[in-house]
Design brief:
By secondary structure, the protein is α/β, with parallel strands linked by helices. The protein has 14 helices and twelve strands. The chain has one domain: TIM Barrel. α4 runs parallel beside α14 and α13 crosses α14. The longest helix has 33 residues.
């Protein structure tokens, strides 16, 4: 196990870079094109200021919240992230166990390196687990995947809607990124069989053999991007929500919303939750930072469904700012991978524990004995700073 000595989540990335292969670190850490959105996701939090209340009893601070009728120990979900076994042999199993131990929710990626049912079983003691869905052209495949997740005990779906194609991730192209030998993507078993992508698979191979081969094959650029582009449904519209309702009873969240108009479209289509996200700066470069997009989305939704947010969360104060601007909870991404790389389940738990302690302390210093006390008046947008009025 690597050294787990760190004071905050911002310190983790350079530590993880020392232990991860260059191609793997590049895949996890990079954004698209100039990485302007990736940088802005983090920088935006420093542009907002917090206004505390004094003379409030904060001797006992309650960080719990409720999502889909389930209580979380604090308003945090682990974001869906692909191929976690590249960071540590236990991969998604370690992350699932850590989330359960902390009493928070995990979102399992379609592009996971551990079977869905095994990940759900590992986190069986946790309060809530989502399955993140990429929508492929083969609707029968999508139906089987969704129903398998439901039968495995997942309690919600999180449909990624901002990736009709993968963004131009130059680090992956430069490194000719592909899935390392010995790993596979079990959720993709059988993908492409109806579109001819199965041609060339070895005789007698298991259904997913060609899908795995496609992300292992050598060649220029990113093998993952090539395989994704071949199979993803770029014609996706809001009508998909009605189709999905016909194959599952699970609540449906949509992830990748940045505008009030799209949030309204999602609510009108009948979704159960909105996730404000720019895909960690990995899709459209120069798209707005998630925190900047959050207030307009939250206003459009108007409490009709939960609003979540991801992108750049590293501190307890970041969570408070997101809640004050309209989020019900936030998702945490890359720091989980860094903790996983540095120490497996223990590393992930330390990451989560660090953020939980910061949140509790910051709430106390804000004069908020519970999350219900956090409100819009406690956060100052850049144009509301006293210096902006001079």
């Amino acid at each position: 196990m690597s050294d787990l000595t760190f004071q905050n989540l911002d310190e983790l990335e350079p530590l993880a870079e020392q232990v991860l292969p260059k191609t793997v670190f590049g895949y996890y850490a990079s954004g698209s094109e100039t990485e302007a959105t990736l940088r802005d996701n983090r920088a935006v939090f420093s542009r907002y200021r917090l206004m505390p209340s004094m003379m409030v009893d904060v001797s006992n601070v309650d960080t719990t919240c409720t999502l889909l009728g389930r209580q979380l120990a604090y308003p945090l979900l682990i974001a869906p992230m692909a191929m976690q076994c590249m960071a540590h042999p236990d991969g998604e199993l370690a992350v699932s166990r850590a989330a359960a131990a902390e009493g928070i929710s995990m979102v399992q990626s379609t592009m996971g390196t551990v079977p869905l049912a095994d990940v759900r079983q590992a986190g069986a003691g946790g309060p809530l687990m989502f399955f993140q869905l990429y929508v492929f052209k083969d609707r029968e495949f999508v139906k089987r995947l969704v129903q398998h997740a439901e039968h495995s005990g997942y309690e919600g779906l999180m449909v990624t809607v901002d990736a009709p194609f993968l963004g131009k991730r130059e680090a992956d192209e430069r490194n000719s990124f592909r899935l390392p030998d010995g790993l596979r993507l079990p959720n993709l078993d059988g993908l492409g069989a109806k579109t001819g992508a199965g041609a060339g698979a070895k005789s007698g191979a298991e259904p997913g053999a060609k899908s795995d081969a496609a992300v292992h094959d050598a060649g220029p650029g990113s093998a993952i991007a090539q395989h994704f582009t071949e199979n993803i449904d770029a014609s996706l519209t809001w009508s998909f929500v009605a189709w999905l309702r016909g194959v599952t009873s699970l609540p449906i969240f949509v992830k990748g919303i940045l505008s009030a108009a799209d949030a309204e479209g999602g609510v009108n289509a009948g979704v159960d939750g909105i996730v404000v996200s720019n895909h960690g700066g990995r899709q459209l470069d120069t798209a707005p930072a998630s925190l900047d997009a959050l207030p307009a989305v939250a206003a459009a939704v108007g409490r009709r469904v939960p609003v979540l947010m991801d992108g750049g969360v590293r501190r307890g104060t970041d969570i408070i700012k997101a809640l004050a601007l309209g989020a019900d909870a936030v998702l945490l991404g890359r720091p989980v991978l860094w903790g996983l790389a540095l120490g497996g389940q223990q590393g992930v738990q330390k990451v989560l524990e660090t953020l939980r302690k910061e949140l509790r302390l910051s709430l106390a210093l804000m004069g908020c004995p519970s999350l219900a006390h956090v409100n819009r008046h406690m956060v100052l947008a850049p144009w509301e700073h006293p210096s902006a009025r001079l």
